[in-house]
């Protein structure tokens, strides 16, 4: 039996009955209707793979113009629909015209069952091939940035990092939901990608979604997709990120930024494992591995009723808390040497080494921007250094900023620390949001949300 849904449109009850009786033994689902005027409703409510479309509906008509009209209408909804035209009047010229207009095949009534099944079988294979190609095209467009950016491996020997790596290797082969916590720049995305890379889904899609940069109005259309005509600019059907990640892993970054209404919508999708595109009523099944991350204190937010407890239960089957860089000791030097190798190769320079004073400076600095800040510092140092050795001057860590960070207590609450970092970046750049966001490793939208959150 073919795993396909076939829609048959014909104004002859006998044709519909005979086709349904035969095809229901051959395909997963058969839908019939007498009028092509029902096409829009039927296609919006059902995931149709193959359409058998009669060419004449008015009494006495035999020129096939109605069939051509409805063929063009169907393909305007989705050019990848597989349409087989049916007619009782054999006409080579009409058949050629139908194929040129986009029909997949053309059969005469009454048909031989073997011939009909062979035609349906070939059409089903074509539909599946079209679906795969279309999905791959969408994935390519959506993932282009991530694919060109690349990912770093986990580097470090500190006790906390070793424990995290051991946990990662245990949880990665499962489909357990993972919540990654930690300050900005601690490597949450790197850990998410490592989980995916050590999972059974490693050859499938890794879909990174920055929820902090998503406008609330775009949340549903980006994550769940939309149908053509769902809103003004919806000129074609578009699958959402969950559909594109089907079979793979979806990484929802900055999940703590979601409003309560958006949390409810996400929870519904995670519980039902289905998505419904905007403008449609049909549910689509999804099979994804969920990884989430945030730098916000979710348990405190639950206590304040700003984050749903049931959503927290759903996303944190396993929880990873990444330590800030200032607590990772000599890992700072391991990471620094790793980044120097990466950027020496990237900028076609000889491998650099750190002077003793530069090493001391790196170890004593408090790194409010964590690994991301260290990466930026070393990239700049490799570019600007003249010799093979990188000095403390090449690091360009300002004494004033160094002193401020040294005075920062490790016990400071995560929220207070984040507020201080945001305020400091804004003050440094004299209110220039773009520059402040770039320094913090945030988008402008994400920085504006933090300004509003902290009342800055």
From TrEMBL:
Residue stretches making up the Sigma-54 factor interaction domain: 154-383
Any Pfam family matching the protein: AAA_lid_14
Kinase in keyword set: no
GO BP: any one term: phosphorelay signal transduction system
Keywords: Activator, ATP-binding, DNA-binding, Nucleotide-binding, Phosphoprotein, Transcription, Transcription regulation
Gene Ontology terms for molecular function: ATP binding; sequence-specific DNA binding
4-aspartylphosphate, modified sites: 54
Family annotation (InterPro entries): AAA+_ATPase, AAA_lid_NorR, CheY-like_superfamily, Homeodomain-like_sf, HTH_Fis, P-loop_NTPase, Sig_transdc_resp-reg_receiver, Sigma_54_int
Domain Response regulatory per the UniProt entry, residue ranges: 5-124
PANTHER family: ALGINATE BIOSYNTHESIS TRANSCRIPTIONAL REGULATORY PROTEIN ALGB (PTHR32071:SF113), TRANSCRIPTIONAL REGULATORY PROTEIN (PTHR32071)
Protein name: Sigma-54-dependent Fis family transcriptional regulator
Source organism of the structure: Pedobacter jejuensis
């Amino acid at each position: 039996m073919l795993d396909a849904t076939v829609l048959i449109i014909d104004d002859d009850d006998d044709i519909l009955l005979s086709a349904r009786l035969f095809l229901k033994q051959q395909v997963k689902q058969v839908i019939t209707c007498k009028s092509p005027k029902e096409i829009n409703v039927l296609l919006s409510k059902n995931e149709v793979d193959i359409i058998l479309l009669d060419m004449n509906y008015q009494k006495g008509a035999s020129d096939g113009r109605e069939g051509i009209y409805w063929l063009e209408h169907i393909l305007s909804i989705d050019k990848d629909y597989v349409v087989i035209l049916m007619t009782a009047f054999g006409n080579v010229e009409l058949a050629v015209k139908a194929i040129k207009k986009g029909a997949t095949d053309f059969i005469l009534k009454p048909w031989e069952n073997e011939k009909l099944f062979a035609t349906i079988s070939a059409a089903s294979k074509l539909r599946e091939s079209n679906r795969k190609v279309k999905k791959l095209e969408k994935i390519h467009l959506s993932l282009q940035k991530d694919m060109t950016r690349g990912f770093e491996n986990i580097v470090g020997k500190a006790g906390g990092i070793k424990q995290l790596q051991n946990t990662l290797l245990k949880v990665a082969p499962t489909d357990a939901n993972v919540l990654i916590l930690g300050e900005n720049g601690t490597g949450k995305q790197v850990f998410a990608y490592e989980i995916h890379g050590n999972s059974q889904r490693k050859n499938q899609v890794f879909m990174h979604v920055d929820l902090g940069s998503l406008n609330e109005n775009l949340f549903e259309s980006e994550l769940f997709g939309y149908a053509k005509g769902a809103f003004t600019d919806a000129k074609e059907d578009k699958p959402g990120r969950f559909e594109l990640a089907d079979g793979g892993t979806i990484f929802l970054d900055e999940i703590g930024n979601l409003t309560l209404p958006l949390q409810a919508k996400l929870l519904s999708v995670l519980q039902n494992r289905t998505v419904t595109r905007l403008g449609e009523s049909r549910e689509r099944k999804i099979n994804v591995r969920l990884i989430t991350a945030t730098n916000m204190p979710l348990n405190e937010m639950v206590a304040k009723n700003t984050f749903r407890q049931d959503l927290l239960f759903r996303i944190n089957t396993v929880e990873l808390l990444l330590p800030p860089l200032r607590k990772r000791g000599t890992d700072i030097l391991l990471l620094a040497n790793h980044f120097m190798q990466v950027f020496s190769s990237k900028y076609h320079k000889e491998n650099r080494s750190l002077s003793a004073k530069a090493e001391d400076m790196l170890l004593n600095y408090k790194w409010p921007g964590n690994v991301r800040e260290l990466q930026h510092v070393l990239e700049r140092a490799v570019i600007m250094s003249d010799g093979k050795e990188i000095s403390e001057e090449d690091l360009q860590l300002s004494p004033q900023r160094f002193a401020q960070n040294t005075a920062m207590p490790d016990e400071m609450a995560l929220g207070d620390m984040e507020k201080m970092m945001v305020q400091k970046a804004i003050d440094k750049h004299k209110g220039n949001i773009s520059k402040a966001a770039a320094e913090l490793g945030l988008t402008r939208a994400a920085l504006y949300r933090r300004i509003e959150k902290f009342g800055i």
